[in-house]
Amino acid sequence: MPAPRTVLLTGAAGGLGTLMRGLLPEYGYALRLLDVRPIEDAPGAIAADLSDRAALREAVRGVDAIIHLAGISLEAPFEKILKANIEGTYNLYEAAREEGVGRIVFASSNHAVGYTPRPRGGTPLDADALIPIDTPRRPDTFYGLSKSFGEDLAQLYWDKHGLETVSVRIGSCFPEPTSVRMLSIWMSPADGARLFHAALTAEHVGHTVVYGSSANTRLWWDLTTARELGYAPRDDSEPYAEKLIAEQGDLDPDDQAQACLGGHFVTDPPIWPY
Ligand code: NAI
Ligand code: 15L
Predict the structure, then answer these.
(1) Which UniProt keywords apply (predicted)?
(2) Residue 214 Cβ < 6 Å to ligand 2
(3) What is the pLDDT of residues 117-166, one digit of tens each?
(4) Residue 100 pLDDT greater than 90, yes or no
(5) Could you identify which of 4, 23, 95, 124 might form a hypothetical disulfide with 65, taking C-beta atoms 3.0 to 4.6 angstroms apart as the criterion?
């Protein structure tokens, strides 16, 4: 696939979308923006819902690739998740197939495997203690279930239609880690842009699943498949560790909310407010 230049960014009004709108143009991309919410500082953005198939078809026409961030990003009633994340992602894949788009970078989530026990051991963990990318999927919420669906959809569209996807199981991509759990799964925005760029430009990805994080000293998972795309993370959450642990205490092995990769999503997930 030739290096993509024009990229549709769905979910461009959201937290991660806003960060990537700022960072990805530095890699030479011309971004086409889409979100159901208006984006005040981007008057040319497409205001469309993922349920609007005609609008999606038009939005993907002529782009080289898509970064798909749009959707419900927390837990919600199944009916809402079904419409936005499951049917919405299907609608986008259909539009991409119909318009011949070659590649999608899909924002999956650590919550597709959220019930996986978090690894125990020293810091850093030995390589063989890290959670492998082929660990069985164990969604911790309907939200995580929709990400698991998205990964399967991506596999189907590769096998059946030759549409490539990199599914990125993002940890926590925010300007700074704000919890002890996030020390292990944090992806700095700059590393996020590096990973998306690698996912857009690597050759022959088929359907590749990667974890999305920085090279954290307290890393819980195996970044090999991400590195194989050419991703070279530069950041590490460790400078935030002392302060966060002093404020919040270290992870309690007897607390179920801290025993799994998905953290509090397992016991008390944050609810989508809309
Ligand atoms: P966010 O909630 O801030 O942004 C999501 C955006 O999608 C919003 O602007 C919203 O208006 C839009 N959206 C929701 N439903 C839509 C629909 N039906 N049609 C069109 N647009 C719709 O979420 P955030 O944090 O920016 O995350 C972006 C993506 O990355 C999400 O898919 C999320 O699940 C995923 N992700 C994010 C992580 C993070 O650390 N920020 C971690 C793991 C996954
Ligand atoms: C996610 O999937 C959410 O979209 C994001 O808001 C964070 O909560 C993140 O996971 C996390 O696990 O910290």
Answers:
(1) NAD, Oxidoreductase
(2) no
(3) 999 988 999 999 999 999 999 999 999 999 999 999 999 999 999 999 99
(4) yes
(5) 4
pLDDT band at 49 (very low <50, low <70, confident <90, very high): very high
**Enclosing domain of residue 139:** 6-266
Q: Has residue 273 been placed in a domain? A: no
- Looking at residue 238, which CATH number applies to its domain? 3.40.50.720
Residues with Cβ within 8 Å of residue 75, at least 6 apart in sequence:
141, 142, 143, 265, 269, 270, 271, 272
Assigned domain for 1 exists: no
CA angle 166, 205, 196 (to 5 degrees): 40
The alpha carbon of 35 and the centre of ligand 1 are apart by a number of angstroms equal to 9
Asked if residue 272 is part of any domain, the answer here is no
**Ligand 2 probe mutation, 264, 265, 266, 267, most atoms within 8 A of CB:** 265
Total domains, the chain: 1
Closest ligand 1 atom to residue 110 Cα is: 43
In terms of Cα–Cα distance, which of 90, 77, 87 is closest to 143? 77
Q: Which residues are catalytic?
A: 143
Q: Is residue 74 part of a domain?
A: yes
